[in-house]
Specification:
23 helices, alpha+beta, 551 residues, four-stranded mixed sheet, two-stranded antiparallel sheet, 14 strands
C-alpha cells in the first residue's frame, strides 16, 4: 500500500443553472491574456450537444486517453515511436475551427465615424489574423439548444442510443455540464508529453505544466481525451486548468467554486493507493472501471490507512481533512457521484452527481403526487433524460449505477418531504435504497444545506513546504513570456508578482475576516471591498483620543 493524497471535486448537476459565472470568473483570473482568447479552463456545456471543442468525445477521431491491448495499458494515440514520426505534423489535434476563432469588434469605426445617414457598425475582426470574419461558432454557441437537431443530434454520446432520445419539442431535454481539467490519477497528457513538461504534484495530485520545459509539441492536446489542455499561440506553450493551486495551498476553494451561484461544487481530499492505479486502469471491461476506481480510494478512518499515510509523510491535519471530506462521502459512503467517461482510463478526479429534476415534472404531468416514493421510483425509467444517455457519460454505458444513484436522490426527496410536512418519517424509504435514516438525513444535509466549510474541506499547505510550492508556482509563470496579463487578477492590474503562499495568506485573511479591517493589523489593513459606503469603515483612520481613553 502506497498512500497518496489527491485534491478532488464533485459537482451536483441538479443545481447547475447554466449561468456561466464559473467560466467568466475563471477566464478573468487565469486566461485574460493575449494568446489565450479561445482558452476556457472552465466551460459549461449544454447536453445533449457538441461540447467544447466540438466533438471532443469522439476518440475514434482524436485518439485521446488509454486503451488496453493484450492486458497492457497503452496510449490510444500510440507510443514513443509513433509520436516521434508525427512530432512535427500532428494530425490528431483539434484545429481552431473545432474551438472557435476569437474575435473583437472594430470599435474605432463605431466611435470615430463622421456624421452620416446610416449608423456605423462595429464589425467583428479576428484576434489571430486581425482580418474581418463572420462569427459562426464559439465556446458555448449551442447553449440551451439541447433539443435542436442542428447541434444536439450530432452529440457523439448518442451513437447507439438514438432510439432512446427524442427531439420532438414536447419530448426534448437538456442539462448543463460544467467541465474543468480532471486532474487524473493516470493522466494521459503527462504520458504523451515528449518534453516531460507536465507533472502531477506529489503533495496534492494537481496536474500542472512546467512552462520552462514545454516546447509546444502539443502532444498533450492530442493525448487528453477531455481536451482540457490548450495551446497558447502567443507564447508557444501549453496551458491548462491549475485547480487554482495558489488558493488551494492556503485552504481557499477554486475561483469557479467560490463564485458558483448554485453552490453545486464540493472540494475535498481523497487518500488513494497509488499501487492500485495501474491495475484499476487496466481493467478489461469498460463498465468495470467505475468500481475499479472506487476500489483505489482508501478509507481515511481505517487505522491501517492512517498508519501508512503517516509513514508516507502525510500530515495529521491532512488525514483529518480526508476524514471530513465531502468527496469521500459522496463517492464511497453515499455512492451518488460518478466519474466523467471512465472508459478513457485516466482515472478522473472531478466527479458528478447526475441530474434528477425532470423526473418530478414527468410525474406531475400525470396528475399524481410527484414526491411519492412509489411514483418517483417508477418514473425514473420514463425520464426525459434517458438513463442510457447518462450512463454513456458517467459509467461507460452501464445503467445500473446510474439507476441506483437516481433512486437514492428520489428517495431522499420523499423522505425529507415527510419530515418537512410534519409527518413521521418513513424508515422503509431509505431502506429501499440500502441506506439508514441517519445516512439519508446526512446526505440531504450535504447536498441541500451544507455550509461553506462543509462543502470545502481543504487543508492548507504546511509552512515547511512553502518554498518548494512557491518555486513550483513561479517556474510555471505564464506572464514571463511577454505581453498580456501581468498579474493574477486581470490585464493591466499591476506589475508581475510571484504566486507565493504568503500572498494568498493575505487573501485568505481578507476573505475570512469578520470586519473590514484585516484580523491581525487592524490599524493598518482595511478591506474596502466589503464596505457598503455608509459612514467610515473601522480601522481606516487612527482612533480618536476620546476613543483611546474609553479603551
Amino acid at each position: 500500500m502506497r498512500v497518496m493524497a489527491q485534491m478532488a471535486m464533485v459537482m451536483n448537476l441538479d443545481k447547475c443553472i447554466g449561468c456561466h459565472t464559473c467560466s467568466v470568473t475563471c477566464k478573468q483570473a487565469w486566461t485574460n491574456r493575449a494568446g489565450t482568447e479561445y482558452v476556457w479552463f472552465n466551460n459549461v456545456e449544454t447536453r445533449p450537444g457538441l461540447g467544447y471543442p466540438r466533438g471532443y468525445e469522439d476518440q475514434d477521431e482524436w485518439q485521446g486517453g488509454w486503451v488496453v491491448n493484450n492486458g497492457r495499458l497503452r496510449l490510444r494515440a500510440g507510443g514513443r515511436f509513433k509520436k516521434l514520426l508525427t512530432i512535427f505534423s500532428n494530425p490528431k489535434m483539434p484545429s481552431i475551427h473545432d474551438y472557435y476563432e476569437p474575435w473583437t469588434y472594430d470599435y474605432e469605426t463605431l466611435l470615430n465615424a463622421p456624421a452620416q445617414k446610416n449608423f456605423p457598425v462595429a464589425r467583428p475582426h479576428s484576434l489571430i489574423s486581425g482580418k474581418p470574419i463572420n462569427v459562426s461558432w464559439s465556446a458555448n454557441w449551442d447553449d440551451d439548444l439541447g433539443g435542436s437537431r442542428e447541434h444536439a443530434a450530432n452529440d457523439v454520446m448518442l451513437r447507439g442510443i438514438e432510439d432512446k432520445v427524442k427531439f420532438e419539442f414536447e419530448q426534448t431535454f437538456m442539462f448543463y455540464l460544467p467541465r474543468i481539467c480532471e486532474h487524473c490519477l493516470n493522466p494521459s497528457c503527462a504520458a504523451s508529453c515528449p518534453s516531460g513538461a507536465i507533472y502531477k504534484r506529489e503533495e496534492d495530485g494537481i496536474v500542472l505544466v512546467d512552462q520552462d520545459k514545454c516546447r509546444g509539441w502539443r502532444k498533450c492536446v492530442s493525448g487528453c481525451p477531455y481536451k482540457k489542455i490548450y495551446f497558447n499561440h502567443r507564447t508557444g506553450k501549453a496551458e491548462k486548468c491549475t485547480f487554482c493551486f495558489p488558493r488551494i495551498e492556503v485552504g481557499l476553494p477554486t475561483v469557479c467554486s467560490e463564485t458558483c451561484v448554485g453552490r453545486l461544487r464540493y472540494i475535498g481530499l481523497m487518500l488513494y493507493d497509488a499501487d492500485k492505479v495501474l491495475t484499476a486502469a487496466s481493467t478489461e471491461d469498460d463498465q468495470g472501471l467505475y468500481e475499479a476506481q472506487r476500489d483505489v480510494f482508501l478509507d481515511p478512518n481505517d487505522p491501517e490507512v492512517i498508519r501508512e499515510a503517516e509513514k508516507a509523510g502525510i500530515a495529521r491535519d491532512w488525514i483529518d481533512a480526508a476524514q471530513r471530506s465531502p468527496i469521500y462521502a459522496l463517492i464511497n459512503t453515499y455512492k451518488v457521484a460518478l466519474p466523467l467517461h471512465p472508459e478513457y482510463r485516466t482515472m478522473p478526479m472531478v466527479w458528478y452527481i447526475p441530474p434528477l429534476s425532470p423526473v418530478v415534472d414527468v410525474v406531475q404531468e400525470t396528475g399524481e403526487d410527484a414526491e411519492d416514493k412509489g411514483n418517483l421510483f417508477a418514473a425514473i425509467d420514463a425520464l426525459r433524460i434517458p438513463i442510457e444517455y447518462l450512463a454513456e457519460l458517467f459509467t461507460a454505458g452501464d445503467v445500473v449505477p446510474v439507476d441506483a444513484v437516481l433512486k437514492k436522490l428520489a428517495a431522499m426527496r420523499c423522505y425529507m418531504r415527510d419530515i418537512n410536512m410534519g409527518r413521521d418519517p418513513d424508515p422503509s424509504i431509505p431502506a429501499a435504497v440500502g441506506m439508514t435514516e441517519e445516512e439519508m438525513y446526512d446526505m440531504y444535509r450535504l447536498l441541500a444545506i451544507a455550509k461553506y466549510d462543509e462543502r470545502y474541506v481543504i487543508p492548507p499547505a504546511h509552512t515547511e513546504q512553502a518554498h518548494s510550492l512557491e518555486e513550483l508556482a513561479t517556474e510555471c509563470a505564464v506572464s514571463d513570456y511577454g505581453g498580456g496579463q501581468s498579474d493574477l487578477f486581470g490585464e493591466g492590474s499591476g506589475l508581475p508578482t510571484p504566486i507565493a503562499v504568503e500572498n494568498f495568506q493575505m487573501l485568505q485573511s481578507r476573505q475570512t475576516s469578520d470586519s473590514l479591517a484585516g484580523p491581525d493589523a487592524k490599524d493598518s489593513r482595511v478591506n474596502l471591498l466589503n464596505w457598503d459606503g455608509k459612514g467610515s469603515p473601522g480601522g481606516l483612520f487612527p482612533p480618536r483620543e476620546d476613543e483611546e481613553g474609553q479603551r
